[in-house]
Design goal:
This protein is mainly beta and about 375 residues long. The protein has a single domain, classed as Outer membrane protein transport protein (OMPP1/FadL/TodX) (Porin), CATH 2.40.160.60. Helices cover about 0% and strands about 65% of the residues. The chain has no helices and 22 strands. The strands form three sheets. Strands 1-4-5-6-7-8-9-12-13-16-17-18-19-22 form a 14-stranded antiparallel beta barrel. It is globular, with a radius of gyration of 22 Å. The N terminus is likely disordered.
């Protein structure tokens, strides 16, 4: 039964646009802490999102093109047992990210605008096993985030007409902050049962921001340097798995993230301020089933869902809710496990506030692989 546990865990990367309520790309992995003995894993994923919109109002019909860029991710984790009850692990995870680019010369309201955010989490986790089947987890997280933005605005130039002008650029220097994670789990190995509850704190970052903007009165560039504060959200995750028949497992999770606390204000950006501002927290539901075919091969299928809120979205994050289907499999030989998976995401439609635009019919495809080694 243990070989079919979380075959879909190989797909440890998901699209930032698949996580429609925010820009989380993957949560800090804790499943590796339940492996026996010393264990190391490497995860890799590629995500191909497609998010396209059209302008409404006076510029109705102008197309944005695909505003979401492809990206890849790499994560590593290691744990070891210090004794029969106490384990220690460390992980590096590319947990946050966003890549938005509106192509130039399309007639779209914010054509030529781009935004990039990057965030990673280094976590040091300890786990203590009690005799009753319960275990406790606790650790510290070092979270870093930074990025940059370039905003265009449309201006009327005599004899030329409406053209985009790059009037604003800013660079957010990466800043790190410490948070912590605590959790509790209960296991009953004879039926492959494991239930866990994990809480991660928020982190607060003061990003040293340098940039330039056009003075609206003179039209001349003005340089600036100023700190910008942003809070990355706290989260609560409930996850479970249990055998329901011979060689068959059900698994799932419910994850809440406090995205309403996250607001990124771009200094001197005028009407584009704020860049990030969420009106609702996000709850992500996942449910799946796994099947062991033989001693080497197992597979799993799962679905995930995030509700849409129907509110106006930012042009830098023009999505609202999701539904996804994920299929994965794993191969075990001796002390090595190789897993892989494919996820298709139907991204919810959204209307954007700043540019008078609507995005619909969008999707993402993610492919991931994990290699685990026990020693």
């Amino acid at each position: 039964m243990k070989h079919i546990i979380t075959a879909l865990g190989a797909l440890a990367v998901s699209s930032t646009l698949a996580q429609a309520g925010g820009f989380e790309r993957s949560s800090v992995p804790l499943g590796f802490m339940f492996e026996k003995g010393s264990y190391a894993e490497l995860t890799f994923g590629i995500v191909n999102p497609s998010v396209k919109g059209r302008a409404i109002g006076a510029l109705g019909g102008a197309a944005s093109g695909n505003v979401a860029k492809n990206y890849s991710q790499l994560g590593v984790a290691f744990k070891t047992d210090l004794n029969e009850k106490l384990s220690l692990g460390i992980s590096l995870d590319p947990s946050f990210g966003a890549d938005i680019a509106y192509r130039a010369a399309t007639g779209f309201p914010i054509q030529g605008s781009t935004a990039t955010l990057r965030g990673d989490t280094i976590a040091l986790i300890g786990r203590y096993q009690f005799d009753s089947g319960f275990s406790a987890l606790a650790g510290v997280r070092s979270v870093g985030v930074g990025g940059g933005v370039s905003l265009s605005r449309n201006m009327v130039i005599p004899s030329v007409g409406l053209v985009p002008v790059n009037g604003y650029k800013a660079n957010f220097k990466t800043d790190r902050d410490l948070g912590y994670v605590v959790g509790v789990a209960y296991e009953k190995p004879e039926i492959a049962l494991r239930v866990g509850l994990t809480y991660s704190t928020e982190t607060t970052h003061e990003l040293q921001t340098t940039g330039v903007f056009l003075n609206p009165l003179t039209g001349l560039p003005v340089a600036f340097t100023t700190p910008t504060t942003v809070e990355l959200p706290k989260s609560v995750t409930f996850d479970f798995q249990s055998g329901v028949a011979a060689n068959t497992l059900v698994f799932g999770s419910i994850r809440w993230m406090d995205w309403t606390a996250t607001r990124l204000i771009a200094p001197n950006a005028g009407p584009a301020n704020p860049l990030i501002d969420y009106d609702n927290d996000v709850i992500t539901y996942s449910l799946g089933v796994g099947r062991k075919f033989n001693e080497q091969w197992s597979g799993a299928v799962s679905v995930s869902y995030e509700d849409s809120n129907g509110l106006l979205a930012s042009n830098l994050s023009p999505t609202d809710g999701l539904f996804s289907l994920q299929v994965g499999g794993s191969y075990t030989r001796d002390k090595m496990k190789i897993s892989g998976g494919v996820r298709y995401v139907k991204i919810g439609d959204a209307s954007a506030l700043g540019g008078g635009s609507h995005f619909e019919g969008n999707s993402a495809v993610a492919v991931g692989m994990k290699i685990g080694l026990s020693f």
